């Protein structure tokens, strides 16, 4: 499942984030992974529900808690390309 969320930081241009639910992320501790280059967030079900129906305050807090792709790559000892490949694999 996928949705988009546009937010408007004070004094900055709007940012549109594509949020994609990945069931495989339901088993990890992080709320999700943010690819800053593409403005795509890969999230677990709980996080997807917040982006889908939560209030703006909750969405912003969740956005700020997302793990960046490069941080996850460093934590796992993977390249960013490997993380992107893992995120794009089915299941």
Descriptive labels:
91 residues; alpha/beta; single chain; 4 helices; five-stranded mixed beta sheet; 40% helix
What does this 3D model show about the protein?
- It is a single chain.
- The chain has 91 residues and is α/β, with parallel strands linked by helices.
- Helix content is 40%, strand content 25%.
- It is built from four helices and five strands.
- It has helices at 45-53, 56-65, 69-76, 80-88, and strands at residues 2-7, 15-21, 32-35, 40-43, 67-68.
- Strands 1-2-4-3-5 form a five-stranded mixed β-sheet.
- The longest helix is centred in the middle third of the chain and has 10 residues, at 56-65.
- The mean pLDDT is 93.
Could you provide a short overview of the structure?
By secondary structure, this protein is an alpha/beta fold. 40% of the residues lie in helices and 25% in strands. The chain is globular and about 35 Å long.
Secondary structure: number of strands: 5
Specify the helix fraction band: 25-40%
Gap between N and C termini, in Å?
Answer: 13 Å
**Biggest pleated-sheet summary:** 5 strands, mixed
Q: Secondary-structure element order, as H and E?
A: EEEEHHEHH
Low-confidence stretches: none
Shape: globular
In terms of DSSP E residues, the strand content is 25-35%
What number is the mean pLDDT?
Answer: 93
**Number of alpha- plus pi-helical segments:** 4
In spatial order, strands of the major sheet run 1-2-4-3-5
The helix/strand class is alpha/beta
Rg for CA atoms: 13 Å
What is the fold's blueprint, element by element?
Layout: E1 2-7, E2 15-21, E3 32-35, E4 40-43, H1 45-53, H2 56-65, E5 67-68, H3 69-76, H4 80-88
Parallel strand pairs: 2-4, 3-5
Antiparallel strand pairs: 1-2, 3-4
Helix pairs in contact: 3-4
